[in-house]
Design goal:
alpha/beta, Aldehyde Dehydrogenase, Chain A, domain 1, Aldehyde Dehydrogenase, Chain A, domain 2, 2 domains, 7-stranded mixed beta sheet, 6-stranded mixed beta sheet, 20 strands, binds nicotinamide-adenine-dinucleotide, NAD
Length: 486
């Protein structure tokens, strides 16, 4: 493994690296050993104003605004090529900053980032309006124009990938961008800036202002000259973003928020198969995933066998240094997240649930790092905190159920509605249940199939709008109807 190359850590505006107006910096830490990685320029409202101005100029008068959609697509595809070329370094940076296993950073996060840009690069010259023949005297045509300057604010759990999910459709639509990564994981987005420049995006198309939610994030959501905001993060922050949009220029919002996803196993399942499959996906990213399958509903006839085989399999997972091959769970991203998850585990015990496996800190060699063991709770009731709230850590609750109607009701008994899994050999049952689940994604006999061409987003308080697929592009476009009398 080659030595990781750190990115420039200033703000990136107009294709230049610049210091923040205040000159302030914040620190980013390695969650494996709690050591400082580097200091990063900390933006504020004044920097947001400068970045928005650059993005506005690029949108209205810059080279980008005069480019053909084909050329736009070509640059996006070149950007995807560069991500592929720099995959090793990007993956190492992601693991360094976030703590996820290097195999996942490389095989999933960075690979998905590249694939997403490739998908949307292909869309750039296929965005078309319609002709609406009103009568012999009138024809109306629709023009699909870029919505304008967009702000992209993302979370720390898939830092590079979540940004690329939004960059792809925004760039394909012809928008210009001001992005703000999470203050916990600023590094891969900074590294992308050089690739943006090398790919040939003109100055001002992509601008990056690192900093905190309460300052940079809030300035973006309240900004009068930003035309749309696309956000991935918690439901609490989503509300603040929407409030900022409502109180300023009523900019539209796309919100990708939290989840408490049910994963339902019916009696006819092959228990060995489903328990083995579950081992491979349930603790992915240490369940720091918005669609983590945190509530397992298992039908009564297979409950005992499932619990036994699943537990045996989970015991095989390795917690430890994310840079070591074979590690399944690295540390959680930060001390805050680590303490929050342990707080939920404690709460589960206090409320009377049985901690069937795990349930504590995992002590790495030197006692450092934000590790938590994979944890399974049983004897959980639907009203317990660990069954209702998003934990965002490696904690799964196993809940027995009897009937189809019962499990649909209980699965839907949440304020969230992001994803769900249904496992059965009976495809009619699977489709009927999936129709009744209030969830943006339903996976049947699998979990976590997320691809650039499949829309992703939430029902209820899991969000508004969709990332990925052609549905995402629509949200970065304004439709203009031009009606001609002839
Ligand atoms: P968070 O809401 O704390 O932060 C997300 C981003 O919002 C960060 O960049 C943060 O700096 C910024 N922010 C914070 N306060 C802000 C404010 N007042 N105004 C504007 N921006 C602000 O979330 P997090 O802890 O980084 O991420 C975890 C959450 O993200 C979980 O709830 C998870 O479910 C959700 N998530 C959702 C999806 C999805 O696609 N639905 C994907 C990944 C993560």
């Amino acid at each position: 493994m080659s030595k990781v190359q750190l990115p420039n850590t200033k703000l990136f505006i107009n294709n230049e690296w610049v210091e923040s107006v205040s000159g302030k910096k914040f620190k980013t830490f390695n969650p494996v050993n709690e050591e400082l990685i580097c200091e990063v320029s900390e933006g504020d409202k004044a920097d947001v104003d400068i970045a928005v101005k650059a993005a506005r100029e690029a949108l209205e008068n810059g080279e980008w605004s005069k480019m053909t959609s084909e050329d736009r697509g070509r640059i996006i595809l070149k950007f995807a090529d560069l991500i592929e070329k720099h995959k090793d370094n990007l993956a190492q940076l992601e693991t360094l900053d976030n703590g996820k296993p290097l195999t996942a950073s490389k095989g999933y996060d960075i690979t998905q980032s590249e694939k997403t840009l490739r998908y949307f690069g292909g869309w750039a010259d296929k965005i078309q309006g319609k002709t609406i023949p009103i009568s012999n005297e009138y024809t109306s045509i629709t023009r699909h124009e870029p919505i304008g300057v967009v702000a992209l604010i993302v979370a720390w759990n898939y830092p590079c990938m979540l940004l690329c999910w939004k960059l792809g459709p925004a760039l394909a639509a012809g928008c210009t961008i001001v992005a703000k990564p999470s203050e916990f994981t600023p590094l891969t987005a900074l590294y992308l800036c050089e690739l943006i420049k090398e790919a040939g995006f003109p100055p001002g198309v992509f601008n990056l202002v690192n900093g905190f939610g309460a300052t940079v994030g809030s300035a973006l959501s309240h900004h009068m000259d930003i035309d749309k905001i696309s956000f991935t993060g918690s439901t609490i922050t989503g509300r603040l973003i929407m409030e900022g949009a409502a109180k300023s220029n009523l900019k539209p919002v796309t919100l990708e928020l939290g989840g408490k996803s049910p994963n339902i196993f019916f009696n006819d399942c092959d228990v060995n198969h489903i328990a083995q499959c579950a081992k491979d996906y349930v603790f992915a990213n240490s369940m720091q995933s918005c669609c983590a399958p945190s509530r397992f509903f298992v039908q009564e006839n297979i409950y005992e066998a499932f619990l036994q085989i699943f537990t045996e399999n989970i015991k095989l997972l390795k917690v430890g240094d994310p840079n070591v091959n074979g590690t399944n769970l690295g540390p959680l991203v930060s001390k805050q997240q680590h303490d929050r998850v342990l707080g939920y585990i404690q709460k589960g015990k206090e409320e009377g649930a049985t901690c069937h496996l795990g349930g504590g800190n995992y002590h790495h060699a030197d006692g450092k790092g934000y590790f938590v063991q994979p944890t399974i709770f049983t004897n959980v009731t639907d009203d317990m905190t660990i069954c209702k709230e998003e934990i965002f850590g490696p904690v799964v609750v196993i809940l027995p159920f009897k009937t189809v109607d019962e499990v649909i009701k209980r699965a839907n008994n949440t304020t969230y509605g992001l994803a769900a899994g249904v496992w059965t050999k009976d495809i009619s049952l699977a489709l009927n249940v999936s129709n009744k689940l209030k969830s943006g994604s339903v996976w049947i006999n699998e979990y976590y199939s997320i691809m650039p061409s499949i829309p992703f987003g939430g029902y209820k308080q899991s969000g508004i709008g969709r990332d990925l697929s052609e549905y995402a592009i629509q949200s970065y476009l304004s439709v203009k109807a031009v009606t001609i009398a002839h």
